[in-house]
Design a protein that fits this description.
Elements lengths: L3 H10 L2 E5 L10 E2 L5 E2 L4 H12 L3 E5 L5 H9 L4 E3 L5 H12 L6 E5 L5 H4 L4 E4 L5 H6 L2 E2 L8 H12 L3 H15 L1
Parallel strand pairs: 1-4, 1-6, 4-5, 6-7, 7-8
Antiparallel strand pairs: 2-3
Helix pairs in contact: 1-7, 2-7
The structure holds magnesium ion.
The site of magnesium ion has 6 residues, from loops.
Amino acid sequence: MLSKTALTGRLKQIRFVVADVDGVLTDGGIYMDNFGHESKRFSVQDGMGLAMARLGGLQVAFLSARESKSVNQRAKECGVSLVMQGKKQKAPAFAELCLQAKVEPTATLYMGDDLLDLPVFAKTGLAVAVANAVPEVKKAAHYITGLAGGQGAVREVMERVLRAQGSWSKVISQILGHHAEKS
Ligand SMILES: [Mg+2]
């Protein structure tokens, strides 16, 4: 864990947020029917957090070891264009995402919950474990969220980043302004 001052310093430098999917954007549960069709439960507040991140000038990506159509669907809905799935070796996939986003790993924030996320924790500028992460991941994290995956953890982190960067209020005004224009 970083001290509050060190954490704020790193939050200010973040340009690119990469989130693991299962256990971070979801509670880790997977609904599977008799035909093998699966679905996941996402948080609408996380979705707003991701929209706010983009308004605040941050790039966002999803990186998953598993593969599911619902993830592409959710990414599309949240305006997330960078998605990598089926990547059990997450460090090289993360490096590729950084190249695509044209951002140095030091300016990235990565959110994870399980062992496969640890190799990325070693590369990212700010390693964030969700409240429901396994002990090994919490131990390696710079910061541990108060909220759990699928329960607003992503929103919590987006707020931290935007507040540290001084753009939280501006982004809220933008969102409310957009709504006001539509009404
Ligand atoms: Mg996970």
